[in-house]
């Protein structure tokens, strides 16, 4: 399902500037996109316009061919699921199974379909053995995976993840990588708000960079990392492997360790 944003502007009540300034972009169905920028650049504000938590003051937001202005968050939830940065802002049930079932149940899925969605999400994030546990008894990374499972189980065509890898170890990040590939295989769009440039370099082909509420860049991640002036102005650093590749004058510059090793091997042959 396509997302189309046209000249979107927004200012919080007590703000002395526009938090979003005439933002325009299109995200096609099945795309993986990183939404990046310095703290306060407008990333989360933009994401909240996609599921009705905020309404445009100027401009328009379309999900598919449907203008979402005036729709409630509940109406938008069937199309766009949003993961908050802090998992504790989303957890509200007393059993892990009930927590994962909460979203799809409220979207009206049948009992049989609900069970399938919950079971798949629990398995995807390695939480099946904790299905009867109280979420508040879990560690932070387990609660983070629980929030990821809860959003995934909603089976929406668009998923927005706010800092999904923060607090996760290497194994847990691998679970999330598997999840986003699974979602894309189903034709779903994944938007990831993040400061994790290593993850972006390895797994996200396109980046939209916001600077002071405006789109400063929209395009391939490789080209973004080549723009040192823009990265500096947005307080972003490319992955270390990319910086090393640049130092060694590799062409093209490596985004991943595998690419670096491959390029290095060719250069010594």
Q: Total helix count?
A: 11
Average of pLDDT: 91
Architecture (CATH level 2) name of one domain: 3-Layer(aba) Sandwich
Which sheet architecture does the biggest sheet show? 6 strands, mixed
CATH topology (level 3) name of one domain: Rossmann fold
Oligomeric composition of the shown chains:
single chain
How many DSSP E strands? 10
Strand order of the largest sheet: 6-7-8-3-9-10
CATH hierarchy, class of one domain: Alpha Beta
Low-confidence stretches: none
CATH superfamily placement of one domain: P-loop containing nucleotide triphosphate hydrolases
Computed over alpha carbons, the radius of gyration is 19 Å
What is the CA-CA span between the terminal residues?
A: 46 Å
How large a portion of the residues is in β-strands, by DSSP E? Answer: 15-25%
Overall geometric form = globular
Percent of residues in helices comes to 25-40%
What does this structure look like?
- The chain is of the alpha/beta class.
- Among the domains are: 1-74 and 191-237, Rossmann fold; 239-269, no CATH class.
- 38% of the residues lie in helices and 21% in strands.
- It has a six-stranded mixed β-sheet.
- The mean pLDDT is 91.
Quick structural gist:
By secondary structure, this protein is an alpha/beta fold. 38% of the residues lie in helices and 21% in strands.
Layout of SSEs?
Elements: E1 3-10, E2 20-27, E3 32-37, H1 43-48, E4 58-63, E5 66-67, H2 73-76, E6 80-83, H3 96-106, H4 111-124, H5 140-152, E7 158-162, H6 170-185, E8 189-193, H7 197-203, E9 206-211, E10 214-220, H8 221-225, H9 228-233, H10 240-247, H11 257-268
Parallel strand pairs: 3-8, 3-9, 6-7, 7-8
Antiparallel strand pairs: 1-2, 1-4, 4-5, 9-10
Helix pairs in contact: 3-4, 3-5, 4-5, 5-6
């Amino acid at each position: 399902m396509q997302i189309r944003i046209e000249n979107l502007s927004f200012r919080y009540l007590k703000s002395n500037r526009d938090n979003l300034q005439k933002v325009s972009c299109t995200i096609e169905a099945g795309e993986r996109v990183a939404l990046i920028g310095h703290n306060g650049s407008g990333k989360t504000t933009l994401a909240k316009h996609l599921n009705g938590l905020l309404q445009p003051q100027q401009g328009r937001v379309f999900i598919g061919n449907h203008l979402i202005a005036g729709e409630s968050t509940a109406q938008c939830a069937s199309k766009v699921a949003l993961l908050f940065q802090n998992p504790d802002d989303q957890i509200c049930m007393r059993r892990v199974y009930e927590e994962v079932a909460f979203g799809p149940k409220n979207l009206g899925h049948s009992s049989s379909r609900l069970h399938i969605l919950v079971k798949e999400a629990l398995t995807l994030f390695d939480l099946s053995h904790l299905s009867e546990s109280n979420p508040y008894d879990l560690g932070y990374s387990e609660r983070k995976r629980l929030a990821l499972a809860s959003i995934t189980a909603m089976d929406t065509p668009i998923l927005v993840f706010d800092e999904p890898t923060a607090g996760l170890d290497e194994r847990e990040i691998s679970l999330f990588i598997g999840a986003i590939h699974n979602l894309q295989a189903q034709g779903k769009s994944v938007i990831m708000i993040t400061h994790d440039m290593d993850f972006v370099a390895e797994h996200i082909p396109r980046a939209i960079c916001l600077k002071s509420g405006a789109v400063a860049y929209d395009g391939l991640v490789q080209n973004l990392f080549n723009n040192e002036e823009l990265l500096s102005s947005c307080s972003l650093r490319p992955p270390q492997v990319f910086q090393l590749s640049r130092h060694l004058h590799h062409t093209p510059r490596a985004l991943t360790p595998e690419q670096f090793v491959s390029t290095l091997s060719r250069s010594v042959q």
